[in-house]
Design brief:
The complex is a heterodimer.
Chain A lengths: L1 H13 L6 E6 L10 E9 L9 H17 L3 E2 L5 E18 L2 E3 L9 E3 L2 E19 L4 E12 L2 H16 L9
Parallel strand pairs in A: 2-3, 2-4
Antiparallel strand pairs in A: 1-8, 4-7, 5-6, 7-8
Helix pairs in contact in A: 2-3
Chain B lengths: L1 H13 L8 E6 L10 E4 L3 E3 L8 H17 L3 E2 L6 E14 L5 E3 L20 E12 L4 E12 L2 H16 L9
Parallel strand pairs in B: 2-4, 2-5, 3-5
Antiparallel strand pairs in B: 1-8, 5-6, 5-7, 7-8
Helix pairs in contact in B: 2-3
The chains are: A alpha/beta, B alpha/beta.
């Protein structure tokens, strides 16, 4: 049982990503229910990663934004109420990790346990993407909603898989809930 | 079962942390009818490595042959004149040296924000981050319609060079993209 627990924890840790965080800011003076139309103005990648510096990725993001807002009852229009801008940037990090030693307990049938020595310090590389989604009121040229998502993963490929979901998570917070 | 768990546990502990598992990403334009593409041409790609074991015609020709074979098996025909799609590849190998404190530092000019470390000739290489990109673009108009990126961390450039053709095969196994039902 104990072995199963250690095994499970290690398996989880082996693929563990660093925690994500996100922030949404909105203009409390704006009545978001009056916003009926949108247009995607700019999708921009400041990343040099091949997964993100191409039209296919930016097109995918546009499709996610479009589908989400249409589902929420907004219409795409060339002279819209809000203009939407998306941007992404990435950074690479190198940190150091130490692994603690531990003892694998005795198994059934007389199998003897053993001690696994600790290891390290060893390098750990990870990648971070920062995505930003801006909603600007066209008439006033004023930013009324901004969602920022910071996602850290231990490979760029994983980031490429999670960023579209991150965009969806940000959009799930639009429109902002009215405070009573 | 218990034995399998013990062995897996041991294997996990022995895995060098610095070497990440191979991973790949494929992106494509869902509005493009890939079945309409019948011909292709391979353009000379970019090899971003000064290592002779990566940047040499034998490795490049083996990579091109794999691309050619994989597309031919899928019914496409190579033609130099007005191909439906143009294939381009990029190969990058960033070398890292692990310092006494355990930190991995890229060797040579700084890349991707991790900072550089100066003299590329005097620093031992502990591992490399290898990247293979295969792009499929329409020729008229020139538009990227499919991109595969394969990331392969290896102990050294020679190992990466040996695996390049195999990495290309794994990427192209995902071409053409499957239609979503």
């Amino acid at each position: 049982m104990r072995l199963t627990r250690i095994f499970g924890t290690l398996l989880l840790c082996s693929g563990l990503a660093v925690a994500d965080d996100h922030t949404v800011n909105s203009d409390a003076t704006v009545d978001f229910s009056t916003i009926k139309t949108f247009a995607i103005r700019e999708t921009k990648s400041a990343s040099q990663k091949y997964e993100f510096n191409n039209r296919l990725f930016l097109k995918k993001v546009s499709q996610i934004v479009r589908a989400d807002l249409i589902k929420k009852g907004l219409e795409e229009n060339p002279t819209p109420d809000i203009l939407i801008d998306f941007s992404i940037s990435t950074r690479d990090y190198s940190t150091v990790e130490n692994q603690r030693g531990f003892r694998v307990p005795d198994g059934p049938g007389g199998q003897r346990g053993y001690v696994v020595d600790g290891a390290g310090p060893q390098p750990k590389l990870f990648n971070e993407a920062t995505i930003s989604l801006d909603f600007t009121m066209r008439a006033k040229n004023a930013l009324v909603w901004r969602g920022t998502y910071r996602d850290e993963e231990d490979s760029v490929s994983k980031l490429a898989r999670t960023v579209p979901t991150d965009v969806e998570k940000l959009l799930s917070e639009y429109p902002p809930k009215k405070k009573n | 079962m218990c034995r399998i768990m013990r062995l897996t546990l041991l294997a996990l502990m022995l895995l060098p942390l610095s070497l990440r598992a191979d991973d790949s990403t494929v992106d494509f334009d869902a509005d493009v009818a890939f079945s309409s593409f019948r011909t292709f041409a391979i353009k000379d790609g970019k090899i971003d490595s000064t290592r002779p074991e990566v940047n040499n015609s034998i490795v490049i020709n083996a990579l091109k042959k794999t691309i050619r074979d994989e597309l031919t098996v899928r019914g496409l025909k190579e033609t130099p004149d007005k191909p439906d799609v143009v294939i381009q590849y990029i190969v990058e190998a960033t070398e890292y040296s692990v310092g006494s404190g355990g930190r991995a530092n890229p060797i040579g000019p700084a890349r991707g924000g991790r900072g550089g470390r100066g003299d590329p000739t005097g620093t031992p290489v502990d591992f490399i981050e290898g990247t293979l990109v295969i792009d499929v673009s329409t020729s008229q108009p020139a538009l990227l319609v499919w991109r595969g990126v394969y990331r392969d961390d290896e102990k050294n450039s020679a190992k990466f060079a040996q695996k390049l053709a195999g990495d290309a095969k794994k990427l192209l196994a995902q071409y053409p993209p499957k239609k979503k039902s």
